[in-house]
Design a protein that fits this description.
Helix content: over 70%
CATH superfamily: MetI-like
Order of helices and strands: HHHHHHHHHHHHHH
Low-confidence stretches: none
Strand content: under 5%
Radius of gyration: 23 Å
CATH architecture: Orthogonal Bundle
Mean pLDDT: 84
CATH class: Mainly Alpha
Shape: elongated
Structural class: mainly alpha
CATH topology: MetI-like fold
Number of domains: 1
């Protein structure tokens, strides 16, 4: 009875420590004013994006059912004016948030999974395995990520998931280097040596010891990477490599350029998507920097 209870009580103790650590991180995070402001703004933007079908019915953006004037400045009923097809710029901005945030989060998830796995492998294994993994990481660090993403988006069929794959596959190398350095630091600690002496294998060491220790660092890096993914998506859509059937902030800027809205002085169609990109990226940066200062003892002391 007591023997069977020990593993359970041990797991409960570990879970309790992790909950206490998470609570401590949250308490430290809410003390950073910039991080809280960024998190609140992000929450508002995400809620608006989720409620887009309710706030702006898709039928209202159907060009076959629109009677509003084209390229009209802000007026009652159209707070941000209309686009070259007579659609509400505010409605397009709300719907564009769905695609831009989806690509940002999904591409970052792909990047974090690849980068975390590769980084832990590069820091844990030795010999030829480490050399091969490091050469792969160096290759993706040297090759410009945006150029590689453009190539992948051009080769694959155009679509939102193509952009997600292109951004995720080309933006993981930086995370891998950071995770590798953290893995080397963790595996130099005495409890890892004790686990090895007791017969722990690679899967146990990486899954039970290394991964939980690097996750806070990965979380802080994730919030910063999402902003870069949003910019990358906007760039690819602006270059015409996005899904033409989906509205995103990058495609809005491309339409503004193609239709001459930017040169004709139709500021109400050019500024909103550009400012939306800036605000979202700034919010992710504020949250990421705040998390980084909380999770990094050196920055916290400063």
């Amino acid at each position: 009875m007591s023997v069977d209870a020990r593993p359970t009580s041990g797991r409960q103790a570990v879970a309790a420590r992790r909950r206490a650590a998470a609570l401590h991180v949250w308490q430290e995070f809410v003390r950073t004013r910039s991080g809280v402001v960024g998190l609140v703004l992000l929450a508002v933007i995400i809620v608006i994006a989720i409620l887009a079908p309710v706030l702006v019915p898709a039928e209202s953006l159907d060009v076959t059912q629109i009677t509003a004037p084209t390229n009209h400045p802000p007026m009652p009923g159209y707070p941000l004016g209309t686009d070259p097809q007579g659609r509400s710029v505010l409605g397009m901005l709300i719907w564009g948030a769905r695609v831009s945030l989806l690509v940002g989060f999904a591409a970052t998830a792909v990047s974090m999974v690849i980068g975390t796995t590769t980084g832990m492998a590069a820091g844990h294994f030795t010999g030829t395995s480490r050399a091969v993994i490091m050469r792969v990481i160096d290759f993706f660090l040297v090759i410009p990520g945006l150029v590689l993403a453009i190539v992948l988006s051009s080769v694959l069929s155009r679509g939102v998931w193509t952009i997600i794959i292109a951004i995720g596959v080309t933006s993981w190398a930086g995370t891998a280097r950071v995770v590798r350095a953290q893995t080397l630091t963790i595996e130099s600690r005495p409890y890892i040596e004790r686990a090895r002496a007791l017969g722990a294998g690679d899967r146990h060491l990486l899954g039970r010891h290394v991964l939980p220790a690097v996750l806070p660092l990965v979380l802080a890096n994730t919030t910063l990477t999402v902003g870069s993914a949003v910019i990358a998506e906007s760039t690819l859509s602006f270059l015409g490599l996005g899904d033409p059937t989906q509205i995103s902030w990058g495609s809005m800027l491309k339409t503004a350029l193609d239709t001459g809205a930017a040169t004709a002085g139709y500021w109400w169609y050019v500024l909103p998507p550009g400012l939306a990109i800036v605000v979202v990226v700034l919010c992710f940066t504020l949250v990421g920097r705040a998390l980084e200062s909380v999770l990094n003892p050196t920055l916290r002391r400063r």
